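Students often ask why we bother predicting the structure of a whole assembly rather than each chain alone. The short answer is interfaces. A chain on its own may look different once its partners are present, and contacts between molecules only exist in the joint model. In this exercise we take two input lines together and write out one structure for the complete complex. Read the inputs first and try to guess which parts will touch.
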Amino acid sequence: MNFDYTDDQKALKDEARRFLLAASPLSVARGVLEHPAAGYDAALWARIGEQGWCGAAIPESYGGLGLGYVELCALAEELGRALAPIPFASSIYLFAEALLLAGSEAQKSALLPLVASGELIGTLAVSEGPGALTTERIAAQVTGGLLSGVKLPVADGMAASKAVVLAQGEAGLGLYLADLRGPGVTREAVSTLDPTRGMARVSFDGAPAEPLGTPGEGLALLARIHERGAILLAFEQLGGADRCLEMARDYALERYAFGRPIGSYQAIKHKLADVFVKNEVARANAYYGAWALSTDAPELPLAAAAARVAGCAAYWMASKEMIQTYGGIGVTWEADCHFFFRRARHLGLVIGAPRDWKRRLADRLEERVEAEQAA
Amino acid sequence: MNFDDSPTEAEYRVTVRAWIEANGPDLSVLAPEERRAWHAKHKEIARVWQATKADAGYACISWPKERGGAGGTAIDEAIFNQEEARAGVQFTYFMTGLHMLLPPLMEFSSDEASLARVAPAVRGDEIWCQLFSEPSSGSDSAATRTMAVRDGDHWVLNGQKVWNSGAHAADYGMVIARTDPDVPKHKGLSAFWLDMKTPGLEVRPIKMMSGDSELNEVFLENVRVPANQMVGATGDGWKVVISTLMNERAALGSGTGLGWRDVMDIARNSPAFDGSTLDDPAFREWLADYYVNAEAIRLLSFRTLTALSHGKAPGPEGSAGKLLWATQTQELTNQALDIQDAFGLIDDPDIALLNGGFQHRFMWAPALRLGGGTDEIMKNIIAERVLGLPGDVRVDKAVPFREIPTGR
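Now the answer. The structure tokens for the assembled complex follow.
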């Protein structure tokens, strides 16, 4: 039993933090915010690719480093802390995981090495409108290998060249692999609350698409992909929430009111202590998720839902209370606080809102109790 | 990051699980009214179990053998504790001594007569209580007014203590007293251990809002304590307090008891307007929120364990666990009543669900948020010791204790 990173993992994490301090200061996120056309910072993405991070958990046989998922979680925590404006989550936590879970040998061999090097950016294209992903909601369909429909919003939809698309097939909802630069695809950037993580409207009109995984099992596969992504995203949320708390703490030490640092007032101290506790809850659940992901434990679906619920709650609270601690300067464009406030919502919604994950969590608990009673 | 047992740990777990199954006490011999803490028969079963564990090397596993322990590892001890809790045979009688008071005694005292008290406590033959809090010294735990004055080879203690868990049944106590009122308050304290039968010491139970009476007031009137029973040097009292409280919070934060399974059980048996409450989306959302907090408490105890296994002391982050545990207990018990509607008001063990366990716990929850450091003190500790925020403005820190304003 070990509730911690190993020494090697800590060294990797420290190295990543040093790298990102230099390569991704908040001015990089601000650059994308103020010039959002690309939806990400291509130069930073190239440097991340050179570091080999995209392939951290991709097996060596597919061109990755094969380090493992705890290592990928450590990187995710640092990327979240740095607020890196890159399509890492879409391409690595979701697209690569979709391929690893459901891809044929040919699909994996063709695409994973390109994903691992960072040359290929992939994403998931599932949402079509407000609310949960139900069978009735999805209108996109594939007939005779050609995909038609509109996906909105698609995270990193402008940056990505490939997408895993949820669409109706002859056997029901399935996942399909489509080339976003190929014929029959048009796309346009959409304005969102977090321009540092670009999103797009992607329209398919007879675009070639091949099945990924068993046709008709789209929602079940998507749930498994989202579970794996939820754990990795929870580490980004944790890194972001920790940074919010540190920034709020630092500001509370600097800023004086009534002749004292505002951090000496219990109103601020107790607020930040509450944030700390929420972050600890997120950390505990994220770590458990990392363990479940790295060992492919049967507890993975429960651990993933718990990590997501706790991660969403922590980042939301830490980002809004950081602004509150900063006071007036915190709500200006010039201050950096709003980057985190935006990112907290992006990460909290991109694979489904906490409400949906709480529903899943309760389902898993009920299953667990039934299994315990049967045993 | 690994939440699995190592092969050695797994083997140890199998061994102790089988041993507990074969040797553990049978509580079913007790009538329902005898199954309450501090009932004589309940306490006797706990004592026999503690001695059985000590004989087999399962009491205070990580302590040195010469002190009655088994010279094992902190991980072994934690595994045993988990298995003991799992089997429902964990008792609280010895925890104050074994988890809170005797570790600092062993750390700060080199007096053999004092250290000789450790082994009988490990066996459960002697029970310890903590005599720290006072009517004017709660959260302000260095505001101790109980005085200790040297008289030959004794110290003479006068004062009043309060909230002393189990003092009515304890054989020994650890007491904090002021040995120098002319220096700032943290510097003038000293710790002693004493026999609870010492003349001049009187214990009066306090009836709590829950109806239980396991907390007490303790009055000390010219209580003579041999000088060798001072724990540490004169003026070391605050260090002993801190060591004890850190151990207490680490222990409280990993608390067990009624949990999400039990509230699900009640929800399953409580109809809502549309199916059972377990199917109610509002309940399920609450359940998810409760679970992530409860799970964090469980997982954070593994972090304390990881620190211990690396030879580190539990740190101020234990305060987060204590804060969570107390607030979540209140949250859980309140929800358990809510989902039963008016039936939730019934606390008669013969009628109420789960023998009224949630109702009883509900009436204890406010005390849990106060004892062992209030929510507010936990937040101060987190803010100051973890986040590094400044202490509040203090009017009592640099002045001699006797000059500190006391109010009414």
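Check your guess against this: The longest helix of chain A spans residues 218-254.
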